[in-house]
Design brief:
The protein is 54% helix and 5% strand. By secondary structure, the chain is mainly α. It has 17 helices and seven strands. The chain has a domain at 135-186 and 227-425: Collagenase (Catalytic Domain) (3-Layer(aba) Sandwich), CATH 3.40.390. The chain has helices spanning 3-6, 18-24, 30-37, 50-62, 65-80, 86-101, 109-133, 136-159, 165-176, 201-217, 265-282, 303-319, 337-360, 375-385, 393-402, 408-417, 420-425, and strands spanning 14-16, 45-47, 179-183, 239-241, 246-250, 323-324, 329-330. The strands form three sheets. Strands 3-5-4 form a three-stranded mixed sheet, with helices on one face. A two-stranded antiparallel ribbon has the order 1-2. Strands 6-7 form a two-stranded antiparallel ribbon. The longest helix is centred in the first third of the chain and has 25 residues, at 109-133.
Length: 443
């Protein structure tokens, strides 16, 4: 499937029995494969791309065994390149670092070693990271911010003029069921079963990989554990899990300049506040909206509301389809629609939450600080600064083709051009580059 088609969760939720797998690819010994993995025998399997199975069977019929051996040998070496001698490390970097991304030099070994430890023993490393970089006061403030953002989305839902009462009530039920994971898991993973030594990096990586495969296989047939994390505590990222219906914010992203217990509320809301809002809105983007509050793939929309919703998301898709002559490429707003919906909604509800927080202090968005800026101006500047990055043209071109997010500069400019509050905060007049006569708005 192409990237746009794969964004629809119902397209990748194709249930098959073992007999159906065997019928689709009779040249592949499925039973031997599952036995070698040590996998249990579930009632069914989920095939994300049925077309892949058809293509695999065709290749198995026409490609000689020597070709498969060479192909699989290459993949084994490619996957293990970072843990092999320097010749493999350098060749891997030359292709995937320099050629595809434009990087000029291999990161130093200490940095790579930290990345490997985070990849293979992440929650163990995370305990040390949290002890040093994420005190209880940070967790408590982050929890307050999350609560205020959820309340802001509830307010925004009530203000939507295109949503009927039935869908509005369903949206509130889903929002009320949202789970929040802040900083680190409720229980850290036990890695004591992994054999780690000083003699072989390759063995260490293999042992850690085997541990993870067996851990995941052991979850099959058991109740969903909504406390499992997909990212490690030091990770500078955040995510929404539609099947768990949880938002997750590792301690790594709850750091300056995005977040600080010493920061002005406008700075926190413009930084981490927009990130929090972004992840909450993912539960209501064009993919997340198809899941209910229990994480089941179930459409809870009325037909009229769905039509009005899709008209608004189509507006965003058109807006984010942009020709970039400096890169020689055009973006596809359909492919980035989920992230763009979350960006725009995140800015809107973060500003609502800031406004409510300031009101509790007897202040408004127009209140000026010691720096002479209004709270609204500091909010928008904090958001813009959070996306100040330096990316090479090679990396940007690859991102346009492979990343579901828009380029950082577009994430800022496109979202703020849709914001009447941004234009008001900086006195932007009609016809200015950052002012749209009619902005796109979903949430």
């Amino acid at each position: 499937m192409d990237a746009v088609t794969r964004r629809a969760p119902e397209r990748v939720n194709n249930v098959r029995t073992l007999a159906e797998l065997e019928a689709a690819v009779p040249s592949f010994d499925w039973r031997a494969y599952f036995a070698a993995l040590g996998a249990p025998a579930p009632a069914h399997y989920r095939v994300s791309s049925p077309g892949f199975l058809a293509g695999l069977e065709q290749l198995l019929e026409v490609e000689p065994l020597d070709h498969w051996k060479a192909y699989l040998r290459w993949w084994a070496l490619h996957a293990a390149a970072d843990a092999l001698p320097s010749e493999f490390v350098d060749e891997s970097f030359e292709m995937f670092g320099r050629t595809l991304s434009g990087a000029r030099e291999l990161p130093p070994r200490w940095r790579r070693c930290v990345e490997y430890a985070d990849r293979d023993l992440g929650e163990s490393l995370g305990q040390a990271y949290v002890a040093r970089a994420f005190p209880l006061a940070s967790k408590q403030l982050a929890e307050q911010l999350v609560a205020s953002l959820e309340h802001a989305l509830a307010t925004s839902i009530d203000q939507l003029d295109w949503m009927t009462p039935a869908t509005r009530r369903a949206a509130h039920r889903k929002l009320d069921a949202l789970g929040e994971d802040i900083g680190y898991p409720a229980r850290f993973r036990d890695y004591s079963a992994i054999a780690i030594s000083r003699t072989s990096m390759l063995d260490n990586v293999a042992h850690a990989a085997a541990f993870e495969v067996h851990r995941q296989l052991a979850t099959i047939g058991r109740p969903v554990d909504r406390q499992l994390w997909e990212e490690t505590p030091p990770t500078i990222s955040a995510y929404y899990n539609p099947q768990h219906h949880t938002i997750n914010f590792p301690a790594g992203i709850l750091q300056p300049p995005l977040f600080s217990t010493d920061a002005d509320p406008a700075v926190n809301y413009g930084g981490i506040g927009v990130v929090i809002g972004h992840e909450i809105v993912h539960g209501f983007d064009d993919g997340g909206r198809k899941f209910d509050g229990d994480g089941n793939l179930r459409d809870w929309w009325t037909a009229p509301d769905l039509q009005r919703y899709e008209e608004r998301t189509a507006c965003l898709a058109r807006q984010y389809t942009i020709e970039l002559p400096e890169l020689g490429i055009t973006t596809d707003g359909r492919r980035t629609l989920g992230e763009d919906t979350a960006d725009n909604g995140g800015v809107h509800i973060a500003l609502l939450a800031l406004q409510a927080t300031l009101a509790q202090r007897g202040q408004t968005l127009d209140s000026r600080g010691a720096d002479g800026l209004t709270a609204a101006q500091r909010f928008f500047l904090s958001f813009a600064f959070s996306w100040c990055v330096a990316e090479r043209p090679d990396a940007e071109r690859r991102a346009v083709l492979t990343d579901p997010h828009s380029l950082p500069r577009l994430r800022v400019d496109q979202a703020l051009a849709n914001s009447a509050e941004f234009a008001r905060a900086f006195g932007c007049k009609p016809g200015a580059p950052m002012v749209r006569p009619t902005g796109c708005r979903v949430w």
